[in-house]
Amino acid sequence: MAAASGTDAAGTTAPDDGSDHDTRFFGQPWSLAHIFGVEMWERFSFYGMQGILLIYMYYSVADGGLGIPEATATGIVGAYGGTVYLSTILGAWVADRLLGSERVLFFSAWVIMAGHIALAVLPNVWGLGVGLVLVAIGSGGLKANATAVVGTLYSPKDPRRDAGFSLFYLGINLGAFLGPIVTGFLQSNVGFHWGFAAAAVGMAIGLIQYSFGRKQLPASSRVVANPLPANRRAVAIGIGIAGLLVLVVLVLTGVIRADNLAGVVILVTLAAAIAYFCVIIASRHISGDERSRVIGFIPLFIVNVGFWSLYQQQFTVLTIYSDQRLNRSIFGWEMPVSWVNSINPIFVIILSGVFAAIWTKLGNRAPSAPVKFSLGAMIMGVAFLLFLPWANGAPNSTPLLAIVLILLVFTIAELFISPPGLSVTTKLAPERFHTQMVALYFLSVALGTAIAGWLAQFYDPTNEVPYFTILGVIAILLGLALLASVRPVLKLMRGVR
């Protein structure tokens, strides 16, 4: 590997420790550039599409939309977002048992592109349904495996590992920043379907770039960690087909409808989370300490659900608010609604390094995970209360700087709770249930996202005070409850902070 990277200029040979010792991509392996690129363009397409999705659904047909009632539209957005995170579990299972992470990542990118093409070219509600299902499944598969593929570039002790992941997450936020700007501009000037087409083109660019570079990824990225025995594959396929048929029947018989979709996803996700907890805690293959740590994770799980149920309203309530309440006029030019979704990624790019430096500087004096979670929930509650000075105002009466300030607080809350979330989950995971614990973390995000869509039906632009007050206070109380329970929770976590 060193011969190809140019790192042996002094005649030295890189040690064979499982790392890619290439340094051509900002000191990181050149292979990282391929994953960086496909993830950046996937986030470009994902957030670009999501930035115009809600208004596409509830705008009138005359304005290029579908004319779906706002409450139903927000429920669909929440259910879609929850399904993305549910699909990460399916994507991880397929990678672990059938194809390996790299192949699932590659095929998922194709599915995502097909979904955006469906949104761009298929008419009416059919295009919406086909497009969202494909994007949700594909995004879940890519999200579950891109991080795993990055991990194969480094040995556990490679000092570049954290910096490499930081660079990878920079790509995520660059895509999240650029996507809504491009699709929002096209939607405002030439129509919604041009915006969806731009998302498809973005994913195509990422896919083409990745197709040329994927062969350079290490063989370990294609390893199937726990291959499914050949005699069990038919059973797995049968279960999958049966599940799909049941879903089709429920849709055709009206049990699952557009207006109750968020509720269905909430119930399915909640049932899956309870089942996971019961299976892990009841297992005879884990020690007493491991069982205690899983129980200690339950309060963090609950607070994480509460946090995401508010945070993910950026794509439901905040979109409606930006469309109807926000003064988007800048020197006589009206900013597209979706551009508001590009504000948060800017703050993440700026502040993530600041937070990382603070935690590094504090070292062992840094707040424990339960304290970070409680602070994140309380700050998120404060962000909702910050809407109150402009509540019940006239159309376009909220200044743009107010939303910038509120989204800054959103970001600060996110950085307290989101980056430490997956980290503490892996630390608390029993050795035999590592993947299932990661799945539980994603289920908490899925549940919160679906709840965000369900809650949005109670948002009334003509009477906003109760909505923002009640949710803000609940989040603060949730954080305070965890803060008051830090000692017993840490005791359950058995040495994990």
TrEMBL record:
Residue ranges occupied by any Major facilitator superfamily (MFS) profile domain in the UniProt entry: 35-487
NCBIfam families: yjdL_sub1_fam
Entry keyword annotation includes Membrane: yes
Classification via Gene3D superfamilies: MFS general substrate transporter like domains (1.20.1250.20)
InterPro entries on file: Dipep/tripep_permease, MFS_dom, MFS_trans_sf, MFS_Transporters, POT_fam, PTR2_symporter_CS
Chain intervals with Low complexity compositional bias: 1-16
Subcellular location: Cell membrane; Membrane
Domain of life: Bacteria
Transmembrane residue ranges: 44-61, 73-95, 104-122, 128-154, 166-186, 192-213, 234-256, 262-282, 294-311, 339-359, 371-391, 397-417, 438-459, 465-490
Similarity section: Belongs to the major facilitator superfamily. Proton-dependent oligopeptide transporter (POT/PTR) (TC 2.A.17) family.
Region (Disordered): 1-21
CDD domains assigned: MFS_DtpA_like
Topology within the bilayer: Multi-pass membrane protein
Keyword entries, A-Z: Cell membrane, Membrane, Transmembrane, Transmembrane helix, Transport
Protein name: Peptide MFS transporter
